Task: structure prediction
Amino acid sequence: MRSLRRHRVVVPVLLCVLAVLGARPLSADEEPADSAGGPEMHGGAVATGLSAEVVRLYEEAAVATQRYEAGRAAAEEQRARARRAEELLGTQRRHIAALHEDLGRIARAQYRTSGGLPVAAQMMLADSPDGLMRGHHAFAQADLAVNNAIAKNRRAEARLAADEAKAAAEWQALEKRNTQLSALKQDIEQKLESARTELQGRADAAVAAGACRGAVRLDQPETEFTSAWVTPVETYVLSSSYGSGGARWANRHTGQDFAVPIGTPVRAVGAGRVVRVSCGGPFGIEIVLRHAGGYYTQYAHLASVAVDPGERVGPGQWIGQSGTTGNSTGPHLHFETRVTPESGSAVDPVSWLAARGVSL
Result:
């Protein structure tokens, strides 16, 4: 009888445990089952591999961009040297033209002073020793002048030929460099396009599922900021501003938009803590940070996140990559400053950053 009572107690307990486990919500790292009862095709391992590949492609494109910029600078320096060589050629050509004019003047002067007779003939026809000496002196002076002019002309022509050869070599090297840069630039564009397309496709899938896949850690650049506040992206073009109106918003625009390509690293504008990472709704993938003084900043329409909720971040730290998720008409970062973590409490981000020494 004692054994029967134990079984009657244990069975209901086991049923309760099974019921609780069956009703337990999935964690952020677990994947729901598909309609057929099997695992979802985009499970954790697959998602992690895809994220790593996207980051690798982006970093490779960044390295290629640095090589392109270095090559472009070298090409500009080579072009400057070629221009200097061309300027030298122009100077040499003008100098030779002047020497040719000098030779012509000497010949014309000899003809005028000799009455049309060569200097040697005038010496033979001289009627006095003084006339002979004067003729000899004139002949020597004229011969020296002509020889000097011819020698200068030959030296100038030799220098000109050498400079022309050097300039031709410079231009050939420049053309070769330009060809290499063109191929490198094309390779950069292809890799960037591939990385951005893959990154945005993964982001769209996350928004459609309404669940973030977790942080994709980015290798942070070794940059030491001298100020406590920075811009949310390093390079940008300002687009829609705070308070502007339009058909895209039910009310006035609540943030400042930064037009940047998909995959651009997004930075924390200041030290703070991550209070929200979400992947659904009109803002698409978004991050909200809390800063000292009770202010919050929002970074929306992202393509990926690099931080988790509760994490502390520093000024300038990469927290994600820009995209065009949610209600977005094109790649950009939507940046807001708020007095609460929720929408509807935004303040002008431009003046807020300006008060902290950051001018947009």
Summary: Residues 129-209 form the longest helix (81 residues). Strands lie at 237-238, 256-259, 265-267, 272-279, 285-290, 296-305, 312-313, 318-322, 333-338, 346-347.
